[in-house]
Amino acid sequence: MSKPPVFEIDLARFATDPYPALKTMRAQCPIAFVPQLGSILFTRRDDIATAEKNIAVFSSDQPEGLMNKLMGHNMMRKDGTDHQTEKKALFRSVSPITVRDHWTAVFQQHATDLIESLKPTGQADIVRDYALTLSANCLRSLTGLTNLTPAEMDATSQQMIDGISNYAEDPEIEAKCHAATQLLDDAIDDMANKNNIDSEPTLLHVMLESGMQFDSIRANIKLAISGGQNEPRDAISGATWALLTHEYQLQKVLSGDIAWLQVFEEYARWMSPIGMSPRRIATQHTFNEIDLTPGDRVFFMFGSGNRDETHFENADQFELARDIGKSIAFGAGPHFCAGAWASRAMIADVALPTLFGALKNLRIDSNQPPPLMGGWAFRGLLNLPVHWDS
Ligand code: HEM
């Protein structure tokens, strides 16, 4: 039994590319305290999958956590029955059946409208002009907050994400996060008060119908926006970039030998849009001979688990032929992503096939600044300039 070893990182380098440091950790000290993050990082896939299910020790309830303080107390920061009750209420909107029977057609309409407007231009930035707008429009429909613009949806999502990972307590980031949550609370109140709830199975609609407390509804809608905008945006643009830079694999997809779902799932393994989920140690515990003390903050590093060499050969490579059954891109326990089925439909059934089907000879525009990737807790492309034959 021993205290967790200490592993130092260069935070700026980690934010640009966390994978080299995480690889060293997996090999040398898979559970270690990282002073720059003030947290104990779990980096191996199986350790994360085991620990995440033990909610008595690895609790999601973090009363002092930034998410609670800034966004309200949502289900992602609750355990046991409290968590399950809210998840069940919300799930009616995003279950595999509702997604198949309702949302896929809605998402397809958004994608078709957007691609038709882009097509004649011959060039675009996929992050800004396609992934961001499509993700935002799908989320406006899904949440029921059609009173927000796509730009507001994206900006508020980003400002909340920045706020909840603001461990350095930058007051400007905190102020922007407060402004974002205020805007969202007003939009939620507006839609709920107008009694503007039609028959669509939106998140707002199903939660109002369930009788959930209004504070919890607000908190869970903000959770869906913080988690449901940038991840699809990053996965759509990132998977597009992955295909455009792996020509042989792209041809296999276009010829129908490899499914679009495999493209999305392998991308989410390789460059996990959510790289980390935090927990609080609730009770004294020893895990793999490492002592954990009540109050310790643990980060489950999903992005690292998805590069674990024990499960993924050539883990650093984007390889569509691989078995991604062990991927934990959507989590590995009771907090498994509620939006997983909506994301698969939005990205694999709609966004990618619509883009590659409509824009002939799509390619990266080498006359523009090259694509840049960033982030460790949330990771995605910052730009993807492309052109096509119009
Ligand atoms: C590429 C797309 C997405 C990825 C990779 C992703 C990933 C994740 C991950 C890793 C978690 C945490 C799981 C854990 O701690 O075990 C999570 C939770 C969650 N996600 Fe997603 N997500 C995506 C899209 C969405 C969308 C579109 C929504 C909108 C409905 C959404 C809603 C949620 C919610 C509500 C939770 C909390 C679930 C709970 O606490 O039980 N996600 N997601």
List keywords for this structure.
390 residues; alpha+beta; Cytochrome p450; 3-stranded antiparallel beta sheet; binds protoporphyrin IX containing FE
Please give a structural write-up.
The protein is an alpha+beta fold and 390 residues long. It has one domain: Cytochrome p450 (Orthogonal Bundle). Helices cover 53% and strands 11% of the residues. It has helices at residues 11-16, 19-28, 45-53, 66-71, 80-94, 96-118, 126-143, 150-164, 171-193, 203-210, 214-228, 230-244, 247-254, 260-270, 302-305, 340-358, and strands at 31-34, 39-42, 58-59, 123-125, 277-281, 285-287, 290-292, 297-300, 360-364, 373-374, 380-381, 385-389. A 5-stranded mixed β-sheet has the order 1-2-8-5-3, covered by helices on one side. The chain has a 3-stranded antiparallel β-sheet with strand order 4-12-9. The radius of gyration is 21 Å and the shape is globular. The mean pLDDT is 95.
The kinds of small molecule bound in this structure are:
protoporphyrin IX containing FE
How does the overall form come out from the CA principal axes?
globular
**What is the straight-line distance between the termini?**
65 Å
User: How many domains comprise the coordinates?
Assistant: 1
Q: Profile the largest sheet.
A: 5 strands, mixed
Oligomer: single chain
Structural Rg: 21 Å
List low-pLDDT spans.
Answer: none
Counting helices, strands and paired strands, the structural category is alpha+beta
Proportion in β-strands: 5-15%
CATH architectural name: Orthogonal Bundle
Helix content: 40-55%
Strand order of the largest sheet: 1-2-8-5-3
Count of discrete alpha- or pi-helical segments spanning 4 or more residues: 16
Return the string of H and E elements: HHEEHEHHHEHHHHHHHHEEEEHHEEEE
- CATH H level, superfamily name: Cytochrome P450
CATH class: Mainly Alpha
What name is given to the CATH topology?
Answer: Cytochrome p450
Q: How many beta-strand elements?
A: 12
State mean pLDDT (0 to 100 scale): 95
